[in-house]
Here is the input.
Amino acid sequence: MNLKKILVLGLTGAILLTGCSDRREAAQQMLENQKMENRHEATTFAMDTVMTFTVIHEDGDEIIIDAEQEIRRLENLLSVTVENSDVSKLNAAAGNEAIEMHVDTQVLLQKGKELGEKTGNAFDIAISPVVKAWGFTEAEHSVPSQEKLDTLLPLTDPDDILLDSGKAYLQKEGMAVDLGGIAKGYASDKVAELLKEKGVASAIVSLGGNVYGVGTKPDGEKWEVALANPLDANDYCGLISIENQAVVTSGGYQRYFEENGKKYHHIIDPATGYPAESGLLSVTIISDSGTEADVLSTALYVMGLEKALAFWQEHGDFEAIFVTEAGEVIATEGADACFEFEGRDNDFTYRMVERG
Here is the structure.
């Protein structure tokens, strides 16, 4: 224990014994100063997005470096844009041979298939050929013809991804997987696990909007995450309070292009090959698992409000907040308990949906 900690503990003990207000104020100030000194922040760019870290720990700088290295390690395995990643090798061998996968890649491919099946394939890790046709992973965007989509859709069946004995195989030539809709959530789980193993009790990380709050703030209050207003990048609809939880938002407003006066966003409905038209502006998931939150935010957006609420009623191991094109903010019962709505000034209405 360092001298500073001994001094603070000594002063705290004196306060308890004497009740002296001056000493109480002095001790409180020293505690606040210590918390500030132990607050470490960093920003980096990985997995094609900006990532931020706030860690409250005396060794915070070193711990953040470890977290960044873990993310780089995962990126080199999982990214479709890294030439020698597991995913790139798998896609290059589609229809020809099985490729040995690192354990993290195996886990994520299996998890992606399982969650895809759970959501009725509203989430599909094999949708990459269609996404590429729209240009969302390319230099230029374009609206593909129906004939083109009809050719590509048969290549997007996740059942054609075979996993066995540490290897993966894409059965059809032209198939490709893209873990972009699950990898950042998985990375947030791995980083949170790393932080906890290193004794961090207070931290918050944002991996391109995939937020994970470890523990609470130093003052014991929960971390607060703003729910973005999909219609105004400078505004928000409310605040979500979390402790050891992930918050992930998906919305068509995040990435899109316009052609002939029509907007086309990046969240593709695997059933049609077109951007999902679900009546939703955004879906936010609150979950203990960043991996599942990442997947479900996309899947429930594709489903639309009615099917998404039915899915929540059935599975119930997460909470959700929906922002609709009709101007409603709708929270599931558990989300309502940790959400402070602040969208009235922007003509949003709010309601909560109870569990049946």
